[in-house]
Amino acid sequence: MKRAGILNRHLSAGIALLGHTDTVMVCDAGLPIPSCGPVVVDLAFREGVPSFEQVLTGLLDELVTEGAVAAQEVSEHNPAAMALLDACFPYPALDLVSHEELKSRTATAKLVVRTGEARPYANVLLRCGVPF
Question: Angle between the 79-88 and 52-62 helix axes, to the nearest 10 degrees?
Answer without folding.
Answer: 10
